[in-house]
Amino acid sequence: MTQDLAREGMTVVVVTHEKEFARAVAHRVLVLEAGVILEQGPPSVIFTRPTQPRTREFLREVLHLRADGNS
């Protein structure tokens, strides 16, 4: 349903901890901590080359990202 709405041109905001879902369907990903946006960008960048240390740490824990930011 969410993907159908997006295909129809509807803006859809989804809050999730499901990284693979976000990677598959998002056009833009925001990483928040304590309500503050740490980083934002396309999933291809956020999940493979994050610029913020806290984002890298978080993704390393959930996606086994290497410490240098590369997967």
From TrEMBL:
SUPFAM superfamilies xref list: P-loop containing nucleoside triphosphate hydrolases (SSF52540)
Record-linked InterPro entries: MetN_ABC_transporter-like, P-loop_NTPase
Compartments, record wording: Cell membrane
Record keywords: Cell membrane, Membrane, Transport
Membrane topology: Peripheral membrane protein
UniProt GO cellular component terms: plasma membrane
Keyword Chaperone appears in the UniProt entry: no
Chief localisation class: membrane
Sequence similarity: Belongs to the ABC transporter superfamily.
Name under which the protein is recorded: ABC transporter domain-containing protein
Native organism: Archangium violaceum Cb vi76
